[in-house]
Design brief:
alpha/beta; YbaK protein; 5-stranded mixed sheet; 3-stranded antiparallel sheet; 6 helices; globular; disordered C terminus
Length: 177
């Protein structure tokens, strides 16, 4: 299985500035990163799927903010697929050579199609898994997208509905209809 050293060497060979950051605890999935790093944004998860197209099934890796999932319709449309289904952990391990749940966006085989959610652009720096639970990759988001060759698409909602403020309700004002 690939790990932090493999990712580090690939980025060094390409001359891409980055750092390996030791976590204060162990991550079991990329969704643990915001809690472990104490960051509200900037943490990236790689979700793996199988996209069914007329010409066959394609393995796809999708970069999204940690804790989020791409909207199924947006993902299907961005991939031009008839159907998109989550890849099983065994397939993720075999195809990516990274531990499922901690797949790095760097170092994926060339046959893996890579999409990046446009929401990642909200953070200047991204923290990504590297196949190991104790270390993450710190890299400028732009450098990450260029180095991986990921194609950007709008895949997740801008903000969860629970974060939207209804100013009329908070101020006690009532809207008239």
């Amino acid at each position: 299985m690939k790990g932090a050293l493999d990712v580090h060497r690939e980025l060094l060979a390409r001359g891409v500035p980055h750092e390996m950051v030791r976590l204060p605890g162990r991550a079991t999935t990329a969704d643990d990163l915001p809690r472990l790093l104490g960051l509200p944004s900037g943490c990236v998860a790689v979700r793996c799927y199988e996209a069914v197209r007329p010409e066959g099934v394609v393995f796809v890796a999708v970069l999204v903010p940690a804790g989020r999932e791409p909207h199924p319709d947006a993902l299907r449309k961005a991939l031009g697929a008839e159907e998109v289904r989550p890849a099983r952990a065994e397939a993720v391990n075999a195809v990516t050579d990274f531990s499922a749940g901690l797949v790095s966006p760097v170092g994926l085989p060339p046959e893996v199609e890579l999409l990046a959610d446009a929401a990642l652009g909200a953070s200047d720096v991204s923290y990504c898994p590297v196949g190991e639970g104790e270390v993450v990759l710190g890299i400028r988001t732009r450098d990450l997208l260029v180095a991986t060759g990921a194609r950007a698409a709008s895949l997740t909602a801008v903000a969860p509905a629970s974060r939207v403020l209804d100013l009329d309700r908070r101020s006690g004002a009532r809207s008239t209809g």
